[in-house]
Write a structure and sequence with these properties.
heterotrimer, A mainly alpha (95), B mainly alpha (534), C mainly alpha (219), A: 95 residues, mainly alpha, 2 domains, 3 helices, flat, C: 219 residues, Four Helix Bundle (Hemerythrin (Met), subunit A), 7 helices, 77% helix, 0% strand, elongated
Chain lengths: 95, 534, 219
C-alpha cells in the first residue's frame, strides 16, 4: 500500500484549531451581532467541518472522485434547502 | 445443443444455496420472485378498484374500503414493484456481466439489500392484513398524522426499511461501475443500459434518504405527537409535501430511466445499428437524473406553495422534456434505415416509445401551472402517470425480461405466444388508461368510489381494458415458466447482439467469465447488413 | 508485490487485488455518507423553515438548553475524532497496541458523549420540556417552543443512534485488531469506519450552534 501517512503533528494542529473554533463560536454567541450571529456560527461550523473532511478524513489526499462525491452530497443538500426555502421566503410576496 | 455443463443455476440446488447466495445472478432471481409476488398483490387491488368503478354507484365496496384499496395498490406498486423491479432484477443480473466483472463490488451487501427489501415488505404486508392504510400512497399530512386511524406506522416503517435496500443497491452499482470495469471498458464504451443504471443509482443514493427521514417523521409525529406537519401545533403540512416529493418525483425517473436503458439496448440489437448519438443518449440519462431533482414543486401548485416558487418549478419542469425528447428522437433515428426484426423485445420497445411519448407529452400539460390547476387530482393525472409507470416502466421491463431471458435461463420462450401477449398488453393498456385522460379532462376526480352516471361508458371501457391487460400479464408468467424446462436451448447469443453479456455462456457460469474480458471497441458495433430485406 | 497481494486472505473473490478492494470500500463509504447528508438534510430543511417562521420562540427555547453540556460534548466529540484519526494512522503504521488503545479511547469518549446527552435528556424531562401533553413553557411561545424541542429531540436522537452504531462498529474494529487481522497491509476497515465516525462528528458540529447557541446574546 503506497498510502500517505501524515505526521502526527498535522492531527494535533487540526485538533487544536477545532477546539479553538469551538471556544470561539461559543463565546461569539454571547455578543449581539444581529443577523451576523447566525452567519458567524454557521461559518465557523463550515470551517470546522472542512478541516475534518480534508485532514481527518484525508479528503485532501484522496482521488478526484472522492471530491466529486462529497461535493455532490453538499450540492444536493443545497438543492433541497434552496428550493424548499424558495417557497417559504416568497409566500408573503403576494398581497 | 445442450446447456453448458457448469452454470450459476446448477451450482447448488438446496434452499441454502439460494437464500445465502452472494452471486448477483441468483440474487437477481430472488428479487424476480419477490417483485412478481408484490406485483400480483398490487394488481389484485387494481382488479377490485376497476370492478368497483364499472358502475357509477359505490356498490361493491364501502368508501372506506375503497380508500384502503387505492392506497395499498399505490404503496405495493410504487415502493415494492416499480422502484426495485428493473434495477434489482435486471440491473443486478446485468451490471457485472456488462462491465466484465465477476460480481458486484459488495456481494454480501447485495444479499443484505434483498433481505432488507423483504423485511420492509413484511411490515407492509402486516399493515395490509391487520386492516390496511387509507392515506393514499402519498401519506399527505395532517390526515396521515392526525386523522387516519389505520395502520400508518407499520406501512411507513415498511417504506423506511425498503428505502435502505434501494440505497444499498444504488451504492453497490455506483461503486461497481466506477471500480470494477474490465480492462478497456471506458465510460464511452459502456452499453447505454449501464449509463441508465448509473443515473438511476444516483437518484437512489441522493433521493431515498429524504423519503426515509420523511416517513420517519410521520411515524414519530404519530408516536410522540411532535407536530412538524400539524397546523394546530404550528407545523406546515406543505413542508411534508416538499420533503415527500423531493424523493417521490425523482422516483418516477428511478422507474423510467432503467426502461430507457433497456430500450436503447433492444433498439440497437434489433435494428442492427449503432445507437444514433450514443453520447447524447448517455448524457441525457444523467441530465434526467439531475433535472429530476429540481421540479418537485409541480406536484404542489394547488397545495399553497408561493406563486413564485410555482413559476420556477413550472419552468424547470419543462426542461425535463429536453433530455427525454433527445432519447425518443435518437431511438427513432436509430431505427431509420436499420434492419429491423420484429421479435418480442422489439415489440415492447416500440410500445414503450409510443406510450412514453404520450405520457411525456401529457406531462407537459401538468408542468403548465394554469392547466395543472384544472386537471390536478383528476383522472387525467392518473392516466398520465400510468402511461409513464405502466406504459413506460413495465413495457421496458417486459422487453428487457424477454431480451435477456435466454441469458438468464439458457432457454428460449415461445415466440408466438410472446408476440401475442405483447399485443394484448399494448391494446389492454391503452383501452384501460386512454379513457381516463378524457374522464379527467371532463372532471372526474381521483380517489372516489362513486361517480356521476355520465362517466360510466368511459369507465366501463377502462375496466374492460384492465381485464385484457390482466390476461396479458398472466400469459408471460405461464410461457416463461414453461420455457424453463421445455424451452429450446438458446445458446450464448441467440439475438446476435453485441455486449459482453452475450460473450459468455447462457446461463453464465458463477464467476460470469472464464477469463477477464478485454474490451477493445465501442458498443453496438454491428456488421453491415448484406442485402437482408425484411 | 502484486503476486503476494493476490493471495492475501482478506481479498474477496470479486476483486483483482487489495488496492481495488480498498478503493471500492472507501468509495462505498463516501457514497454512503452522501446518503447520510441527505438523511439529516430533511431535518435541517425542517429546522430552516420553522426557525424562519418562529424565530422568537426558537431563541427562547434554545436558551433553555444546557449550553455547558453542549459545548463540552462538542469538545468531547472533537477529541474522539482526534483519537480516531490517530487510530487510523496507527493502523497504517501497523502499531497494533497503539491502535487498540486509540480505538478504546475513541469508544470511551463516545460513551462520555452519550452519558452527557442522557443527562441532558433527563434534565429536560424533569423541567417538562419533552413535547406532548406534559410539555410546559411560557405561554407566549408554548406551541412553537414545542416545535423547537420536537426538532431538538429528533435531531439529537438520530445523532445519538448514529453514535451508538459507531460504537458498535468501533467494537468490531477493536476485535479485528485484537485478532491481528488489521495490519499495515490491510487496514481499510479501520479507515472506512473512521470516515463514518468523523461524519457523525461533523453532524454534531452543525447541531451544536443551530440548537444551543441561537439567541444566547439576548439574555
Amino acid at each position: 500500500m503506497s498510502e500517505l501517512i501524515l505526521p502526527k503533528r498535522v492531527y494535533y494542529t487540526i485538533f487544536a484549531i477545532l477546539l479553538l473554533c469551538t471556544y470561539l463560536t461559543w463565546q461569539l454567541a454571547y455578543f449581539d451581532l444581529g443577523p451576523l450571529n447566525t452567519v458567524a456560527a454557521l461559518g465557523i461550523a463550515v470551517f470546522k467541518s472542512v478541516l475534518v473532511v480534508l485532514f481527518f478524513m484525508h479528503a485532501k489526499y484522496s482521488t478526484r472522485l472522492t471530491w466529486v462525491v462529497g461535493i455532490a452530497g453538499v450540492f444536493w443538500l443545497g438543492i433541497l434547502l434552496a428550493l424548499t426555502m424558495g417557497d417559504y421566503l416568497t409566500r408573503g410576496w403576494v398581497n | 445443443m445442450p446447456l453448458p455443463p457448469q452454470h450459476y443455476l446448477n451450482n447448488g440446488y438446496g434452499v441454502k444455496s439460494w437464500l445465502l447466495t452472494r452471486d448477483h445472478k441468483r440474487i437477481a432471481l430472488l428479487y424476480l420472485a419477490a417483485v412478481t409476488f408484490f406485483f400480483f398483490i398490487g394488481g389484485a387491488f387494481a382488479v377490485v378498484i376497476r370492478l368497483e368503478l364499472a358502475t357509477p354507484a359505490g356498490d361493491l365496496v364501502s368508501d372506506e374500503t375503497y380508500n384502503k384499496l387505492f392506497t395499498m395498490h399505490g404503496v405495493m406498486m410504487v415502493f415494492f414493484f416499480l422502484i426495485p423491479v428493473i434495477p434489482a432484477v435486471l440491473g443486478n443480473f446485468l451490471v457485472p456481466l456488462m462491465i466484465g466483472a465477476k460480481d458486484l463490488a459488495f456481494p454480501k451487501l447485495n444479499l443484505a439489500s434483498w433481505y432488507i427489501y423483504m423485511l420492509g415488505g413484511l411490515f407492509t404486508l402486516y399493515a395490509l392484513v391487520t386492516g390496511g392504510v387509507d392515506t393514499g400512497w402519498t401519506f399527505y399530512t395532517p390526515f396521515s398524522t392526525v386523522s387516519s386511524t389505520t395502520k400508518v406506522i407499520p406501512t411507513a416503517l415498511g417504506i423506511f426499511i425498503t428505502g435502505f435496500s434501494s440505497i444499498l443497491t444504488g451504492l453497490n452499482f455506483i461503486v461497481t461501475i466506477h471500480r470494477m470495469r474490465a480492462p478497456g471498458m471506458r465510460w464511452f464504451r459502456m452499453p447505454l443500459f449501464l449509463w441508465s443504471m448509473y443515473a438511476t443509482s444516483l437518484i437512489f443514493v441522493l433521493g431515498t434518504p429524504v423519503i426515509a427521514i420523511t416517513v420517519l417523521l410521520i411515524a414519530a409525529e404519530r408516536v410522540f405527537q411532535f407536530g412538524f406537519f400539524d397546523p394546530a401545533r404550528g407545523g406546515d403540512p406543505v413542508l411534508f409535501q416538499h420533503l415527500f416529493w423531493f424523493y417521490s418525483h425523482p422516483a418516477v425517473y428511478i422507474m423510467v430511466l432503467p426502461s430507457m436503458g433497456i430500450v436503447s439496448e433492444i433498439v440497437a440489437a434489433f435494428c442492427r445499428k449503432q445507437v444514433f448519438g450514443y453520447e447524447f443518449v448517455a448524457f441525457s440519462s444523467l441530465a434526467i437524473a439531475v433535472l429530476g431533482f429540481l421540479v418537485w414543486g409541480h406536484h404542489m401548485f394547488i397545495a399553497g406553495e408561493s406563486v413564485y416558487a410555482a413559476l420556477i418549478f413550472s419552468i424547470l419542469s419543462f426542461l425535463v422534456a429536453i433530455p427525454s425528447a433527445v432519447k425518443v428522437f435518437n431511438w427513432t433515428a436509430t431505427m431509420y434505415k436499420g434492419s429491423i426484426s420484429w421479435d418480442t423485445p422489439m415489440l415492447y420497445a416500440i410500445g414503450f416509445i409510443g406510450l412514453f411519448t404520450v405520457g411525456g407529452l401529457t406531462g407537459l400539460f401538468l408542468a403548465a401551472v394554469g392547466l395543472d390547476v384544472h386537471v390536478t387530482d383528476t383522472y387525467f393525472i392518473i392516466a398520465h402517470f400510468h402511461y409513464i409507470m405502466v406504459g413506460g416502466t413495465i413495457m421496458g421491463y417486459l422487453g428487457g425480461l424477454h431480451y435477456w431471458w435466454p441469458k438468464i435461463s439458457g432457454r428460449q420462450y415461445n415466440e408466438a405466444l410472446a408476440k401475442l401477449s405483447a399485443g394484448i398488453i399494448f391494446v389492454g393498456f391503452n383501452l384501460t388508461f386512454f379513457p381516463q385522460f378524457v374522464l379527467g379532462y371532463l372532471g372526474m376526480p381521483r380517489r372516489y368510489h362513486a361517480y356521476p352516471p355520465e362517466f360510466q361508458v368511459l369507465n366501463v371501457l377502462s375496466s374492460a381494458g384492465a381485464s385484457i391487460l390482466g390476461v396479458g400479464y398472466l400469459i408471460p408468467m405461464v410461457y416463461l415458466m414453461w420455457s424453463l424446462r421445455y424451452g429450446k436451448v438458446a445458446g450464448s447469443n441467440p439475438w446476435g447482439a453485441t455486449g459482453l453479456e452475450w460473450t459468455t455462456t447462457s446461463p453464465p457460469p458463477t464467476d460470469n467469465f472464464t477469463q477477464t474480458p478485454i474490451v477493445t471497441q465501442e458498443p453496438y458495433v454491428y456488421p453491415r447488413v448484406e442485402g437482408r430485406v425484411a | 508485490m502484486p503476486e503476494l497481494a493476490h493471495h492475501h486472505p482478506a481479498l474477496a473473490h470479486q476483486f483483482e487485488n487489495l488496492a481495488q478492494q480498498k478503493e471500492a470500500s472507501t468509495l462505498g463509504m463516501w457514497v454512503f455518507l452522501v446518503t447520510e447528508i441527505l438523511f439529516f438534510g430533511g431535518l435541517f430543511a425542517t429546522y430552516c423553515v420553522y426557525r424562519h417562521w418562529y424565530a422568537d420562540a426558537f431563541t427562547a427555547a434554545s436558551r433553555e438548553l444546557i449550553v455547558w453540556a453542549g459545548t463540552t460534548n462538542t469538545a468531547v466529540l472533537i477529541t474522539s475524532s482526534l483519537t480516531m484519526a490517530l487510530a487510523v494512522r496507527a493502523a497504517q503504521t501497523g502499531e497494533r497496541r497503539l491502535l487498540m488503545t486509540l480505538l478504546a479511547a475513541t469508544m470511551a469518549l463516545g460513551c462520555v458523549f452519550l452519558g452527557i446527552k442522557a443527562f441532558e435528556y433527563y434534565s429536560e424531562y424533569i423541567v417538562h420540556h419533552v413535547p406532548g401533553p406534559g410539555f410546559q413553557f411560557e405561554a407566549e411561545h408554548y406551541r412553537h417552543a414545542q416545535l423547537f424541542f420536537s426538532l431538538y429531540f429528533m435531531m439529537t436522537g438520530l445523532h445519538a443512534i448514529h453514535m451508538i452504531i459507531g460504537l458498535a462498529v468501533m467494537a468490531v474494529m477493536w476485535w479485528l485488531s485484537y485478532r491481528g487481522i488489521i495490519t499495515a497491509e490491510y487496514y481499510n476497515p479501520v479507515e472506512v469506519s473512521g470516515l463514518y465516525w468523523h461524519f457523525v462528528d461533523i453532524v454534531w458540529i452543525f447541531l451544536f450552534p443551530l440548537l444551543y447557541l441561537i439567541g444566547r446574546h439576548a439574555h
